[in-house]
Every structure is written in structure tokens, then in C-alpha cells.
Amino acid sequence: MRAAAISEFGGPEVINVTDLPEPLIGPDIVLIRTAAAGLNPADYKIRQGRMTERYPHHFPIILGWDVAGVVEAVGPAVTDFKPGDRVCAYARKFCVEHGTYAEYVGVVEESVAPAPESVDLAHAAALPLASLTALQTISALEVVSGETVLIHGGSGGVGSYAVQLLAEMGVTVLATAGEQNSGFLEALGAVPIDRRGDVVRQVQAVAPGGVDAVLDLAGGPEAVKATLPVMKDGSRAGSILLPPDLGDDGAARGIKGRYVFVRPYGGQLADLSARVDAGALTIHVHDSFPLEKAADAHRALEEGGHRGKLVLTVADI
Ligand SMILES: NC(=O)c1ccc[n+]([C@@H]2O[C@H](COP(=O)([O-])OP(=O)(O)OC[C@H]3O[C@@H](n4cnc5c(N)ncnc54)[C@H](OP(=O)(O)O)[C@@H]3O)[C@@H](O)[C@H]2O)c1
């Protein structure tokens, strides 16, 4: 099968589109014929060799963790899916080797969900990892209706879902992004905050009483620490980058911080897929690239400036 793979760590130029063996099917495996693979920053971090402390890596590595396509075959223990079903998955495995930039992907049944019926499979491929991260971070911080939440990084993959999920819950959302993306943030349901301006002053102007929670989806510990002045006493900070550093001031004020690492739960993904079909969640695909242009897709993702997600198209299904 055709696949975009690396045999060494490095820049986008180490990605080769080549022929590799199709995945084998174990008892719990759903074999997906790939229509599209979603891109995530984890893909280029793996390509750069920055994830070796987190996972075993086996070369050649087929990159990619998000997939949407049609079920080709299932293992004998699989009960919820059958050949022909349109599905999507966050296909993270314990070992980095058999990713989703390929014509076929084997995924354990627990990570698979029905693809939204109302969108094409290229959009479905942009849903899994980022929307699950947004949902699980919101859930970890126990955000509830009526609260005010500040998001660092609202315009990217995870941010574009987090803003929508929070706004839908009845939360007042303030989100940082580059100034060029302020209209996009407003359309998603957030009050835009220019991340290159004085973030604290901008937040104080909108939420003079402070915010109940901060989601760090892009800025890192420095961004969270810089916004401690707008966090209420007893508020929560959640980061998907690094554990938040709240310092002595944060601890003294009862502000709690935690790190969230997304898990590949198919049941939650099915719920997110249903929200797309209900019109409550929109998948924003900024650009798509054919599989053969995977290196260009990585360059675009690393460069930034996108609104929502980037995807690789693999087959016209
Ligand atoms: N822990 C986990 O399980 C987990 C899961 C998913 C992702 N992640 C990580 O979370 C990060 C975001 O993922 P993503 O998929 O949303 O990436 P993405 O689609 O590339 O979006 C990131 C966006 O953040 C903005 N940004 C960049 N630097 C910023 C800064 N200093 N302050 C505020 N905003 C900034 C940029 O938009 P503007 O140009 O508009 O500012 C950029 O488009 C990545 O590092 C990724 O690896 C972790």
C-alpha cells in the first residue's frame, strides 16, 4: 500500500511516500481503507524525534494519528463495526510505527467511531484527536455553564473545537490568537484576545471579575503564569503542553493546575461525531494536501497561521 513514512528523524524532507505492507488484522482490529488522514502537531514532533521519551519508535514509521475512511475488514472479536461502515478514529497506539498516512490503517475497535454523516470523510479526518483533546481538557477542569474561561490558542485545531464546545455549554469564552484570526474566533463563539498585545488588560476589559478557568492549548507555562492576575482565587488551569507553573502566588490563592494527555476513546468520539451531525459542532478544515504532498502539509502545519485543521487526502471514497 502507499504510505508516507520516515526512516530517520529530521525535517519534512525525510518523509517518503513509498510502498509498505498492509497492516495485519488481530482479533480486536478494525481495518480502515483510508479516505483522509488528519494532521496534528504530534506528527511533526514525532518526525523531529521529539517524542522518543513517550513511546517506543520502530522505523520505518508511518506518520499520523487521525483517520477517516470505510471499514475494509474486521477481526473476529469486533462487534460494533462491519465492512462498508464510514468511520473515523484517533489511532494512537502504544508504539509509533503504523500511523494513518497510508491507504490502510488497523485500529483497535475501542478507538473507532462512526464518522459524522453530514460531512465528507476529509472533514471527518479532522475531528478525532483535536476534538477529543478539547473535550477531555474541558472535562478535566470541570467547567460548567455560566463560568468564564480563557483559552490560550483558540484558532488552531484543538482551540477551534474547545471554543465551540464551551460556547455550546453556556460558558463565556475569551480566546487568544493572532490578530488576523480574531474574526474566526468571534464566529466560533469567543471574545478574541490578540495574543501579541497586552492579554491581561484585554481580559480585564471583558471580564473584570476574572476567569474561572484557563485552558492552555498553545502558550505554555509562560502564558498561563502571565495570566495569573486575571484568574479568580480557587480557579483552575489545564494545559495540553506542560504542567502549568502557578508559582507561590497561584498556590497561595488556591489555583489548581493540571496537565491533560488525550486518550483515544471511541465512545467520546462517537458523541462528538453526533454533535457534528446535530449542527452543534463545526469542523474547520483550513487546507488539504494529497498524500504525495505530505512533506508540504508538514511545512504548512509547522508554519502556523491556519484556522482549524489541515488534512491529507488519500483516496476518493
Ligand atoms: N497533551 C495532548 O494530549 C495534546 C493533544 C493535542 C495537541 N497537543 C499539543 O497542543 C498544541 C496545539 O495543538 P493544535 O492541534 O491545536 O495545534 P495547531 O492547530 O497548530 O494550533 C496552534 C495555534 O496556536 C496559536 N499559537 C501559536 N503560538 C501561540 C502562543 N504562543 N500563544 C497563543 N497561541 C499560539 C497559533 O494560532 P494563531 O497564529 O492564530 O495565534 C496556532 O495556529 C500542540 O503543541 C500540540 O502538540 C497536545
Name the features.
about 325 residues; alpha/beta; Quinone Oxidoreductase, Chain A, domain 1; Rossmann fold; 7-stranded mixed β-sheet; 6-stranded parallel β-sheet; 10 helices; about 30% strand; globular; binds NADP nicotinamide-adenine-dinucleotide phosphate
3D architecture notes:
With 317 residues, the chain is α/β, with parallel strands linked by helices. It has two domains: 2-127 and 283-313, Alpha-Beta Complex (Quinone Oxidoreductase, Chain A, domain 1); 131-259, NAD(P)-binding Rossmann-like Domain (Rossmann fold, 3-Layer(aba) Sandwich). The chain is 27% helix and 30% strand. The chain contains ten helices and 17 strands. It has helices spanning 41-47, 121-124, 128-140, 157-168, 182-188, 199-206, 221-226, 247-252, 266-277, 294-303; strands spanning 2-6, 16-19, 29-38, 57-62, 66-74, 86-90, 96-98, 104-108, 112-114, 148-152, 172-177, 191-194, 211-216, 231-239, 256-259, 285-290, 309-313. Strands 3, 5, 6, 8, 9, 16 and 17 form a seven-stranded mixed sheet that branches. Strands 12-11-10-13-14-15 form a six-stranded parallel sheet, with helices on both faces. α4 links the parallel β10 (148-152) and β11. The chain binds NADP nicotinamide-adenine-dinucleotide phosphate. NADP nicotinamide-adenine-dinucleotide phosphate is lined by residues 40-42, 129-130, 133, 152-153, 155-159, 176-178, 181, 195, 217-219, 223, 240-241, 260-262, 304-306.
